[in-house]
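Sequence, please.
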């Protein structure tokens, strides 16, 4: 099993835990966006938006570029790709276990005695 940085995963999943930050990431999936455009759909102050973006930046999910007073954000998919790889390990585990369980249930079902309606 591949080792993953617990700190990196904690920051990634922590950032993704908030619906506002997930919505911001969805906005950024369309391309580079300035902070004021990211803030527009949210009923919060620019300071609050900035805090959310700080969490996303710390997790490495977004990159900030400054051009004078304009701050633009871009999506960086690498932390999500690493989180997905971590999740995939567990999906393989559960898929294998669920397949084994399904085989076991089929075996039990085949062993069950058949009952006719006339016997009741």
């Amino acid at each position: 099993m591949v080792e993953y940085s617990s700190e990196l995963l904690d920051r990634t999943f922590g950032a993704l835990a908030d619906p506002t930050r997930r919505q911001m990431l969805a906005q950024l999936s369309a391309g580079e966006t300035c902070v004021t455009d990211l803030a527009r759909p949210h009923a919060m102050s620019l300071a609050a938006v900035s805090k959310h973006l700080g969490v996303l930046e710390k997790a490495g999910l977004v990159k900030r570029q400054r051009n004078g007073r304009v701050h633009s954000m871009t999506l960086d998919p690498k932390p999500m790709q690493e989180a997905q790889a971590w999740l995939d390990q567990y999906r393989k585990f559960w898929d294998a276990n669920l397949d084994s369980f399904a085989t076991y249930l089929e075996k039990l079902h085949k062993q069950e005695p058949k009952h006719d309606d006339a016997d009741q």
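The mean pLDDT is 87.
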